[in-house]
C-alpha cells in the first residue's frame, strides 16, 4: 500500500455474523464470514480502555499479537479482554 | 590398672551436657600414665632391629605408630589402640607458658611473703560476695577480677603480715621478678642489700650491680607461694579451690602423649621423628643431668643454666613460637616446628581444620558445564561418579524388584549397588560372590548401598560459599561423560561460569536428610535470595538474546513453524493448544510474542494466568501527538521501542522480552510474578521452557558476531572526529585559562583540582556523545547491539568501546598519574595536561590502540585485577567475622530473635516479624498495584455490576477488623492508603470527568452510571484475599537462622563491590569513604574513621541566610593565630623582651569571625603548652597583642631570648577560634537552605554551637553518635550508614538484616564491633571463641578459671557433633500434661518450708 491509497478498515467483535458461539480459526471454509469481503484480517484483544478524556471521548488500545492499535473516539461498548477482528480492504 | 585406660563402649544413649575445662595435677598425670620415662635414647641400638628403647619416648607401652607392631599395654594394633600416656617427673618445677600471664596476675594479687590476698578483710568480703552471685556471667567475673588486680597492685604493704610488696614483672621470656623496694625504700632494703656483702667481699666487681638486684621468683618459690594460698583466697582470685588450685599451673611433671599422635615417619631404614618426640627426649636428657647435679652438688650456676634450658624446652612443648628468648639460649636451642598450640591454631589447625570443618564421604567434584535441556532443579552426574557415590536404600515391598536388579548389576555396572547390609547386621560386598543368589535372598528390611540414580537428591555447591544459595539441593540425572552439568539459569546463585570452574556434590544418606535438603535447600524453594527477596535464578545470556529476538514485532510464523517452535519447549509431554493466529488473511500467521503466550499457558486447563505490566530495558516515554484527538497522556505501551510489557491473562499484549522481564534481580520480572502468584513449581516450569525454547530456537536461528559488526560507519567516523577535535580544543582552552590564572576555582577546590574536574567532565561527555551516536548508527540486526539492548552480555559502553572509542583510562578515581618526572610518559611534554597525555584513548578496539594508549589501558586494567585480588581477601575475612558473630541468632516461637543462651536481641524480628525473602515490593509483602491488576484481570465479566467508591470503602472498613486482624498496623495503613488513592479517588475522579456522580457517599442514582474502568465485588474480594494470604505467608518461620542469613546478606554483596571507594557528595567536594573500606569501618566500630563528617543544619530562622552560615562556619572551623595575623615581631629593648603580634582586623571582619583581641588573649593563655600567664599578655589597641617574656627573676638574658624564640615558634599555631578536632567546615547549599558540613570529630561541641540546630545535626561516626546521643542513636547510625553504602553501589539489602546486625552490635548497651574483642564480649562459649581467633588464649584462660561450656551454639554443636538448636533443631518434644488448662498446679513444698 502507498501513501494516499484509500482503504476500508473495520473493527468487529465477531467475524461470523450472528453466531454467538466462540469461533474456530482452524477451518472456516464452509462458513460465511465477514472476512470473505476483506483482503487482510487480523485478530486481537482489547487490553486497555482509557476514559480519562472526559465526556464523549474514549481511547481503546488493542493488541494484535503484539501489533498495537490505539483508537480514540466516542465511547463504545467494549471492555478490556474483549476479542476484536480488524478487517481491511483496499478501495479500488 | 591397664583396663581402666581403655575406652568403655556403652550402647546407652548419652548427651554431652557441658564441657568443663581444667588442668591435670602432677598426680593426675602420673595416675593417667602407664610408665615414667627416663631414657633419653629413642632406640635401643644394642639389640637387633633397633627396637624402641624401654622407658624411652617411643616405648611400645604408650602405643604404636606403625601397622605391624602391637601395643604392649592393651595388645591392640594401630587401628584400635587409643594410646596411653607416659610421664616425665621434672627435677625442678617449671612455669607453664600458657598460664604464665595469668599466674603473674595471681602473684600480683597475693603477698609475696604470706600468700594472702593483698586486701583488707572488708573489701575482700565484698568482692567475694560479688563473685559468688549465681547469675554472674564470665564478662562480669572478668571485670571483678580486674578491679581486684588493680586494687592489689596499689598495695605496697601486706595488711596481714606487714611485709613489703612491690610490682611483679615478667622479664625475658619466662622469668618473674619482684621489685620489692622500688616504691618504698627503707630498712628492709638496706637489709636486703647487706645480704650481698659476703659476695662482694669475694668478688669486688659485683659491687656495681648490687643496686640492681631484685628478688627473683623462681618456679620453685612461686610454687611454694601458691601452695599456701587459702581456699577462700583462691575463690577470690577466680580459681576453683578444689579442682583448679593455682599451684597446678606450674609444671612438676610433664605428661608425654601417646605415640600415635606423634608418629615416626619411617623410610627404609632411617626414620624421621615427630617434633614432640624429639623435644620430650631432650627434656628427659636435661632432667637426668639436673637430677645428677642436685644429687652430687655441682656448682649452682650450672644448675641454673640447665633449669632455664628445661624451662624453655617445656615451653616449646606447648608452643613453638616464643618471642623474646634470651639470645645466649637461642643458639643451642633446636627450634621445633610444631608445639601443641600450633596444632590447634589457625586455619588448618585442629579447631578450624578438623573440628569445625571435616572431610566427608559420599562427595564428588569435577568440572561443570551447561545443559539447557536439564530442568533447573536437576544436575547431570557423570556415570562414573554415580558408580562411586551410593545411597543406602531400605528394601520395601515397593522397591524390592528394582533393588534386586541393582544387586545383580553389582559394583561395575550402573545402576548397581556396592554393599548389602542384611537385617541382622551382616555386610556383603557385591564386587565378588554370587550376586544373583544375594539378590534372590534380598528381604524387606535389608539395606542396599545402591549407586546414585536418577532423581536422587544431591547437594550441589560451588566455593566460595558466600550465601546459602551457594549450596542447593538438586535432583541427580545420571548421564555419560565426565562433567557435572546444570541449567544455565542456576549460574547466578553459585556465581558459576564454565571457563573451567569445578563444583562439589554431596549425597545425603538418610531419608530425613533428603527431605530436609529438598524442603530447605531445593532449587525450587530458593529461587529468590533472602538478601532482599529478588529472584536470583532466572534466564541469562543466550536465553535473553533468543527471547528478545523472538519477541520483536517483526517475527511471524506460519502454522508449521509456530507448531515446531511450540514443541521445542514441551518435549511432547504436554497438550499444546495453538492460540488463534494474529493474521487470518491473506494467510494465517502467528507472531513471535504468541510463543510466550503458549509458554506461559500451554492449554486452557492450566490455571496460570499471569498479569503484569512493567517497563522493559529500552523503555522510552511515548510522546503524545500534538493537536490530535488522542489523549495527552498516552499509555506507556505506545513506547516507540516496544519497551513496555503488558501481559493480560498470560497473553503478551505489548513489549519485548528482555533482561528486565525474564532476567534476575528484578521483582517486576515475569518469573517472579509467576512465582508469587502461582508458586515455585510453575515458575520453575516456565524457566525450563524458556531454556529449552531458547537453546533450540537459537541453534536453528544462529547468532554470531563478526568483524563487520564493529565497523563504524561513515557518519560515525566523521562525527567522532569533529567531536574529539572540539573536545580537545575545549580542554586546551581550559589549560590555557589555568596557565593565565583566569580559571575560576570551584568551591572548596584549588585551580588544579578544578581543571582536572572540568577536563574529566568534558572527556566523559565526549565518550558518551560519541557512544550515543554509535548506538543510533548500528542497525537493528547488529549482534553486539542486540546483546547490549536485551541485556544478555555487554553494555552500551562495551559496544561503543569496540566501535567508536575507548575513552578515558582511570586509576584510583583520577586520570593516569605521572610515572616519569612531571609526565606520564616521555612521549609528552612535561606538565602536559592534554587529554592524550593523561590517558585518554581516542581509538576504538576496532581501529587499534596507539602505543601510549595501549599502555594506559593496560595500567588501568591492572588496577582492576589488583583491586579484586585485595578485595577478595578482605571481604572473606569480613564475612567470616560476621558469620561468627551472628551464627547462632534465631527466631523463636514468639518471633523474637535470641542468641544461643536465650538472650534477646530483638523482641520481634525486624520489628514486624516478616521474612525478607517474601517481601514483594520494596517495603511491603504485597505489591498492591500488580495484585490489583491481577485480580481485575481475573474476573473480566461485563455482566457483573461495578462497585461504587463508597461501596469499596464500606467493604474494606468491614474487612479491616476481620481479615486483617493479625496484620501489622503499618501494613493495614499502607493498604488503606492504596485503596483510597488508587481505587476510590481515581474512580471518583473518573466519574467526575465523565459527568457522573462521584458516589463517595451512598447514592441511589449513581449505580446506573457505569464506568468501563471498574472494579466489581468479586475482583475486590479477590484483591483483599490476596493481600491477606500473602501477608500471612510472609511471616518468618520460627527457627529460621536469621543471624546466618543476615550475615551472608551483608557479607556477600561486599564481594561484588567494585573499586569505587570514593565519591563526590555535592559541590563542596566532601569525599565520603564508600565500598568495602567503609563497611569495614562500620562493623569494626572503628574509633578513627577515614572521613568523619558531621552535617549541621542551621537554626530555623537563619536557614536560608548564607551570611549566617558563614558565621557558624567561623565558629566551628579552626582558626589559628597565624591565619589572622599580619606579622609577628620581636621587640628587644634593654628593659623589655616581648613579641608583638599584629592582627589583621580587616580580614577578621571580612570573614565574619567572632574574634576580638580579648578572645585572642584568652586563647593564648589557655594554650597550656606556652606556659604564659594573663599578666604577660597585653592588648595593644587597636590591632596588636604583646606577649612579654619574664626573666623569672634570674636576669639571665640568654635564657629569656630562647624563651622568646620558643614562643615565637609556637604561637602561630594557637587555635583562637573553632574546634581543634575539626579539620574543615564547608557551607553546602541544600535545596533553598544552607548547611554546614564539618569534616572531623566533635559532634557534641558542634551540636552546642550557637546557630546550629542541634536536633537535626548528625554524624556518620557511630561511636560518637553513641557517646553523644545514646545507644539507640548508635544503632540508628549503623543502620543508616550500611544502607547508604549499599545504596551507593546500587545494591539493595533488606532493612531487617541490617537492623539485626545493628541490634547485635548494640544489645549489650555499648557498641561492640564485629572483631575478636567485640565478639568475645557478645559470647560466652569457650569453644566458639576458640574456633574463631586466638584459639589457645581462650583455652588457657578457660582451664585456668575452670570455665564451663554448655554446648548451645552452632559452633559448639558442630565441634561436638550434636544437632544444633536452630531450624529443625529448635523444637523439643514436650510431654502432655493431663490436667485442665486453667488450673495452676499447687506449689511444691521446699525442704525448708517445713520448718
TrEMBL record, chain A:
One term of GO molecular function: DNA-directed RNA polymerase activity
Recorded GO CC terms: RNA polymerase I complex; RNA polymerase II, core complex; RNA polymerase III complex
Keyword Nucleus attributed: yes
Location(s) in or outside the cell: Nucleus
GO biological-process terms attached to the record: DNA-templated transcription
Keywords attached to this entry: Nucleus
Stored InterPro entries: NA-bd_OB-fold, RPABC3
Pfam families noted in UniProt: RNA_pol_Rpb8
Family: Belongs to the eukaryotic RPB8 RNA polymerase subunit family.
Name this polypeptide is given: DNA-directed RNA polymerases I, II, and III subunit RPABC3
Organism: Rhizoclosmatium globosum
From TrEMBL, chain B:
EC numbers, comma separated: 2.7.7.6
Signal peptide span: none
Catalytic activity from the UniProt record: RNA(n) + a ribonucleoside 5'-triphosphate = RNA(n+1) + diphosphate
Biological process annotations from GO: termination of RNA polymerase III transcription; transcription initiation at RNA polymerase III promoter; tRNA transcription by RNA polymerase III
Main location: nucleus
Gene3D superfamilies assigned to the protein according to its UniProt record, in alphabetical order: 1.10.132.30, 1.10.150.390, 2.40.40.20, 6.10.250.2940, 6.20.50.80, RNA polymerase ii (3.30.1490.180), RNA polymerase II, clamp domain (4.10.860.120), RNA polymerase Rpb1, domain 3 (1.10.274.100)
InterPro entries: RNA_pol_asu (IPR000722), RNA_pol_N (IPR006592), RNA_pol_Rpb1_1 (IPR007080), RNA_pol_Rpb1_3 (IPR007066), RNA_pol_Rpb1_3_sf (IPR042102), RNA_pol_Rpb1_4 (IPR007083), RNA_pol_Rpb1_5 (IPR007081), RNA_pol_Rpb1_clamp_domain (IPR044893)
Broadest EC class assigned to this enzyme: transferase
Membrane is among the record's keywords: no
Record Pfam families: RNA_pol_Rpb1_1, RNA_pol_Rpb1_2, RNA_pol_Rpb1_3, RNA_pol_Rpb1_4, RNA_pol_Rpb1_5
Domain RNA polymerase N-terminal: 247-551
Cellular component aspect of the GO annotation: chromatin; RNA polymerase III complex
Single GO MF descriptor: metal ion binding
Keywords from the UniProt entry: DNA-directed RNA polymerase, Magnesium, Metal-binding, Nucleotidyltransferase, Nucleus, Transcription, Transferase, Zinc
Location(s), subcellular: Nucleus
Job of this protein: DNA-dependent RNA polymerase catalyzes the transcription of DNA into RNA using the four ribonucleoside triphosphates as substrates. Largest and catalytic core component of RNA polymerase III which synthesizes small RNAs, such as 5S rRNA and tRNAs. Forms the polymerase active center together with the second largest subunit. A single-stranded DNA template strand of the promoter is positioned within the central active site cleft of Pol III.
Quaternary structure annotation from Swiss-Prot or TrEMBL: Component of the RNA polymerase III (Pol III) complex consisting of 17 subunits.
PANTHER family linked: DNA-DIRECTED RNA POLYMERASE SUBUNIT BETA' N-TERMINAL SECTION
Family statement drawn from the similarity comment of this UniProt entry: Belongs to the RNA polymerase beta' chain family.
Protein name stated in the entry: DNA-directed RNA polymerase subunit
Native species: Rhizoclosmatium globosum
Amino acid at each position: 500500500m502507498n501513501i494516499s491509497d484509500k482503504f476500508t478498515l473495520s473493527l468487529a467483535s465477531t467475524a461470523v455474523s450472528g453466531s454467538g458461539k466462540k469461533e474456530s480459526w482452524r477451518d472456516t471454509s464452509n462458513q460465511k464470514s465477514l472476512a470473505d469481503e476483506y483482503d487482510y484480517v487480523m485478530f486481537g484483544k482489547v487490553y486497555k480502555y482509557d476514559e480519562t478524556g472526559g465526556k464523549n471521548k474514549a481511547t481503546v488500545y488493542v493488541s494484535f499479537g503484539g501489533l498495537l492499535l490505539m483508537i480514540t473516539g466516542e465511547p463504545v461498548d467494549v471492555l478490556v479482554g474483549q476479542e476484536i477482528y480488524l478487517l481491511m480492504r483496499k478501495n479500488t | 590398672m591397664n583396663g581402666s585406660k581403655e575406652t568403655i563402649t556403652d550402647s546407652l544413649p548419652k548427651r554431652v551436657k557441658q564441657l568443663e575445662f581444667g588442668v591435670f595435677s602432677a598426680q593426675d598425670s602420673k595416675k593417667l600414665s602407664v610408665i615414667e620415662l627416663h631414657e633419653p635414647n629413642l632406640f635401643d641400638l644394642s639389640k637387633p632391629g633397633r627396637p624402641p628403647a624401654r622407658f624411652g619416648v617411643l616405648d611400645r607401652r604408650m602405643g604404636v605408630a606403625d601397622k605391624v607392631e602391637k601395643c604392649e599395654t592393651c595388645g591392640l594394633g594401630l587401628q584400635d589402640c587409643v594410646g596411653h600416656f607416659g610421664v616425665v617427673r621434672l627435677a625442678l618445677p617449671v612455669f607453664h607458658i600458657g598460664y604464665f600471664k595469668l599466674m603473674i596476675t595471681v602473684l600480683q594479687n597475693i603477698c609475696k611473703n604470706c600468700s594472702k590476698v593483698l586486701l583488707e578483710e572488708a573489701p575482700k568480703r565484698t568482692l567475694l560476695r560479688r563473685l559468688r552471685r549465681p547469675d554472674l556471667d564470665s564478662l562480669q567475673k572478668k571485670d571483678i577480677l580486674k578491679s581486684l588486680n588493680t586494687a592489689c597492685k596499689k598495695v605496697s604493704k601486706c595488711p596481714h603480715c606487714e611485709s613489703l610488696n612491690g610490682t611483679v614483672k615478667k622479664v625475658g621470656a619466662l622469668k618473674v621478678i619482684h621489685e620489692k623496694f622500688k616504691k618504698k625504700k627503707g630498712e628492709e632494703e638496706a637489709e636486703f642489700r647487706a645480704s650481698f656483702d659476703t659476695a662482694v667481699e669475694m668478688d669486688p666487681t659485683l659491687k656495681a650491680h648490687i643496686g640492681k638486684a631484685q628478688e627473683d621468683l623462681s618456679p620453685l618459690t612461686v610454687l611454694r607461694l601458691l601452695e599456701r594460698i587459702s581456699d577462700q583466697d583462691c575463690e577470690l582470685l577466680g580459681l576453683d579451690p578444689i579442682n583448679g588450685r593455682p599451684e597446678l599451673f606450674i609444671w612438676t611433671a610433664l605428661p608425654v602423649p601417646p605415640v600415635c599422635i606423634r608418629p615416626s615417619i619411617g623410610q627404609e631404614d632411617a626414620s624421621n621423628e615427630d617434633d614432640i618426640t624429639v623435644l620430650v627426649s631432650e627434656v628427659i636428657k636435661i632432667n637426668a643431668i639436673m637430677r645428677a647435679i642436685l644429687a652430687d652438688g655441682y656448682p649452682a650456676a650450672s644448675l641454673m643454666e640447665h633449669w632455664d634450658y628445661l624451662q624453655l624446652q617445656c615451653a616449646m612443648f606447648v608452643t613453638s613460637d616464643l618471642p623474646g628468648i634470651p639470645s645466649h639460649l637461642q643458639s643451642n636451642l633446636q627450634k621445633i616446628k610444631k608445639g601443641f598450640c600450633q596444632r590447634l591454631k589457625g586455619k588448618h589447625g585442629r579447631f578450624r581444620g578438623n573440628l569445625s570443618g571435616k572431610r566427608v564421604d559420599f562427595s564428588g567434584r569435577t568440572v561443570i558445564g551447561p545443559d539447557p535441556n536439564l530442568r533447573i532443579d536437576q544436575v547431570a552426574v557423570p556415570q562414573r561418579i554415580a558408580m562411586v557415590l551410593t545411597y543406602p536404600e531400605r528394601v520395601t515391598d515397593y522397591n524390592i524388584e528394582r533393588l534386586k536388579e541393582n544387586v545383580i548389576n553389582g559394583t561395575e555396572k550402573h545402576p548397581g549397588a556396592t554393599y548389602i547390609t542384611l537385617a541382622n547386621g551382616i555386610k556383603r560386598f557385591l564386587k565378588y560372590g554370587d550376586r544373583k543368589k544375594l539378590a534372590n535372598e534380598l528381604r524387606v528390611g535389608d539395606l542396599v548401598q545402591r549407586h546414585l540414580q536418577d532423581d536422587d537428591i544431591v547437594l550441589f555447591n560451588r566455593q566460595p560459599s558466600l550465601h546459602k544459595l551457594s549450596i542447593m539441593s538438586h535432583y541427580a540425572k545420571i548421564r555419560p561423560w565426565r562433567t557435572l552439568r546444570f541449567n544455565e539459569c542456576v549460574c547466578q546463585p553459585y556465581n558459576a561460569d564454565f571457563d573451567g570452574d569445578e563444583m562439589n556434590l554431596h549425597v545425603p544418606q538418610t531419608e530425613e536428610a533428603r527431605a530436609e535438603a529438598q524442603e530447605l535447600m531445593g532449587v525450587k524453594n530458593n529461587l529468590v535470595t533472602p538478601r532482599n527477596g529478588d529472584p536470583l535464578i532466572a534466564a541469562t545470556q543466550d536465553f535473553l538474546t533468543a527471547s528478545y529476538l523472538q519477541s520483536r514485532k517483526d517475527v511471524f510464523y506460519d502454522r508449521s513453524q509456530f507448531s515446531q517452535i511450540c514443541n521445542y519447549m514441551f518435549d511432547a509431554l504436554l497438550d499444546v493448544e495453538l492460540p488463534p493466529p494474529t493474521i487470518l488473511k491473506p494467510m494465517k500467521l502467528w507472531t513471535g510474542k504468541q510463543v510466550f503466550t503458549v509458554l506461559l499457558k500451554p492449554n486452557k486447563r492450566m490455571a496460570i494466568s499471569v498479569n503484569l505490566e512493567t517497563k522493559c530495558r529500552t523503555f522510552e516515554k511515548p510522546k503524545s501527538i500534538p493537536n490530535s484527538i488522542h489523549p495527552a497522556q498516552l499509555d506507556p505501551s505506545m513506547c516507540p521501542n516496544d519497551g513496555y510489557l503488558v501481559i493480560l491473562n498470560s497473553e503478551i499484549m505489548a513489549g519485548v522480552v528482555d533482561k528486565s522481564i525474564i532476567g534476575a534481580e528484578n521483582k517486576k520480572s515475569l518469573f517472579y510474578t509467576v512465582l508469587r502468584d502461582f508458586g515455585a513449581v510453575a515458575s520453575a516450569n516456565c524457566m525450563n521452557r524458556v531454556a529449552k525454547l531458547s537453546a533450540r530456537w537459537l541453534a536453528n536461528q544462529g547468532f554470531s558476531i563478526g568483524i563487520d559488526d564493529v565497523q563504524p560507519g561513515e557518519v560515525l567516523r566523521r562525527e567522532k572526529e569533529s567531536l574529539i577535535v572540539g573536545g580537545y580544543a575545549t580542554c586546551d582552552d581550559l589549560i590555557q585559562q589555568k596557565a593565565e590564572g583566569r580559571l575560576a576555582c570551584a568551591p572548596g577546590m584549588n585551580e588544579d583540582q578544578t581543571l582536572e574536574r572540568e577536563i574529566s567532565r568534558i572527556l566523559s561527555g565526549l565518550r558518551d556523545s560519541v557512544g550515543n551516536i554509535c548506538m543510533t548508527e548500528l542497525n537493528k540486526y547488529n549482534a553486539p547491539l542486540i546483546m547490549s539492548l536485551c541485556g544478555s552480555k555487554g553494555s552500551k559502553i562495551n559496544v561503543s568501546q569496540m566501535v567508536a572509542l575507548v575513552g578515558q583510562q582511570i586509576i584510583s578515581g583520577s586520570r593516569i598519574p605521572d610515572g616519569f618526572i612531571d609526565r606520564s610518559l616521555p612521549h609528552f611534554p612535561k606538565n602536559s595536561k592534554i587529554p592524550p597525555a593523561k590517558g585518554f584513548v581516542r581509538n576504538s578496539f576496532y581501529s587499534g590502540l596507539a602505543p601510549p594508549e595501549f599502555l594506559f589501558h593496560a595500567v588501568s586494567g591492572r588496577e582492576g585485577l589488583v583491586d579484586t585480588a585485595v578485595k577478595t581477601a578482605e571481604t572473606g575475612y569480613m564475612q567470616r567475622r560476621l558469620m561468627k558473630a551472628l551464627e547462632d541468632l534465631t527466631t523463636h516461637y514468639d518471633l523474637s530473635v535470641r542468641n544461643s543462651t536465650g538472650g534477646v536481641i530483638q523482641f520481634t524480628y525486624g520489628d514486624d516479624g516478616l521474612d525478607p525473602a517474601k517481601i514483594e515490593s520494596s517495603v511491603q509483602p504485597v505489591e498492591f498495584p500488580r495484585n490489583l491488576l491481577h485480580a481485575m484481570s481475573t474476573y473480566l465479566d461485563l455482566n457483573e455490576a461495578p462497585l461504587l467508591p463508597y461501596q469499596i470503602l464500606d467493604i474494606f472498613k468491614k474487612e479491616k477488623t476481620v481479615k486483617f486482624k493479625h496484620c501489622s498496623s503499618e501494613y493495614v495503613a499502607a493498604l488503606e492508603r492504596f485503596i483510597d488513592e488508587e481505587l476510590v479517588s481515581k474512580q471518583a475522579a473518573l466519574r467526575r470527568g465523565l459527568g457522573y456522580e462521584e458516589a463517595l457517599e451512598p447514592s441511589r442514582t449513581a449505580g446506573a452510571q457505569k464506568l468501563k474502568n471498574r472494579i466489581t465485588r468479586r475482583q475486590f474480594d479477590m484483591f483483599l484475599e490476596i493481600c491477606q494470604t500473602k501477608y500471612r505467608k510472609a511471616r518468618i518461620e520460627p527457627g529460621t537462622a536469621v543471624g546466618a542469613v543476615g550475615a551472608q546478606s551483608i557479607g556477600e554483596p561486599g564481594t561484588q563491590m567494585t573499586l569505587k571507594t570514593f565519591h563526590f557528595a555535592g559541590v563542596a567536594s566532601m569525599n565520603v569513604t564508600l565500598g568495602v573500606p567503609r563497611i569495614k569501618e562500620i562493623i569494626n566500630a572503628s574509633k578513627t574513621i577515614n572521613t568523619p563528617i558531621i552535617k549541621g543544619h542551621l537554626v530555623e530562622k537563619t536557614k536560608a541566610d548564607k551570611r549566617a552560615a558563614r558565621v557558624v562556619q567561623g565558629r566551628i572551623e579552626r582558626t589559628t593565630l597565624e591565619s589572622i595575623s599580619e606579622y609577628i615581631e620581636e621587640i628587644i629593648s634593654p628593659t623589655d623582651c616581648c613579641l608583638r603580634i599584629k592582627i589583621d582586623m580587616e580580614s577578621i571582619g571580612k570573614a565574619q569571625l567572632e574574634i576580638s583581641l580579648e578572645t585572642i588573649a584568652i586563647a593564648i593563655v589557655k594554650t597550656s603548652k606556652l606556659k604564659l600567664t594573663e599578666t604577660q599578655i597585653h592588648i595593644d589597641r587597636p590591632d596588636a597583642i604583646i606577649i612579654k617574656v619574664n626573666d623569672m627573676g634570674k636576669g639571665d638574658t640568654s635564657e629569656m631570648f630562647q624563651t622568646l624564640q620558643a614562643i615565637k615558634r609556637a604561637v602561630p599555631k594557637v587555635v583562637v577560634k573553632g574546634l581543634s578536632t575539626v579539620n574543615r567546615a564547608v557551607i553546602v547549599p541544600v535545596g533553598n537552605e544552607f548547611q554546614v558540613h564539618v569534616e572531623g570529630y566533635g559532634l557534641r561541641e558542634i551540636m552546642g554551637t550557637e546557630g546550629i540546630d542541634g536536633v537535626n545535626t548528625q554524624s556518620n561516626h557511630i561511636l560518637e553518635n553513641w557517646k553523644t546521643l545514646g545507644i539507640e542513636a548508635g544503632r540508628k547510625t549503623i543502620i543508616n550508614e550500611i544502607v547508604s553504602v549499599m545504596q551507593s553501589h546500587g545494591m539493595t539489602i533488606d532493612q531487617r538484616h541490617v537492623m539485626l546486625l545493628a541490634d547485635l552490635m548494640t544489645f549489650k548497651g555499648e557498641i561492640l564491633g564485629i572483631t575478636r574483642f567485640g565478639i568475645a564480649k557478645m559470647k560466652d562459649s569457650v569453644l566458639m571463641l576458640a574456633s574463631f581467633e586466638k584459639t589457645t588464649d581462650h583455652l588457657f584462660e578457660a582451664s585456668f578459671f575452670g570455665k564451663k561450656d554448655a554446648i548451645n551454639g552452632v559452633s559448639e554443636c558442630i565441634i561436638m557433633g550434636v544437632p544444633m538448636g536452630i531450624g529443625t533443631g529448635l523444637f523439643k518434644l514436650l510431654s502432655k500434661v493431663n490436667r485442665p488448662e486453667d488450673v495452676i498446679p499447687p506449689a511444691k513444698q521446699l525442704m525448708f518450708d517445713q520448718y
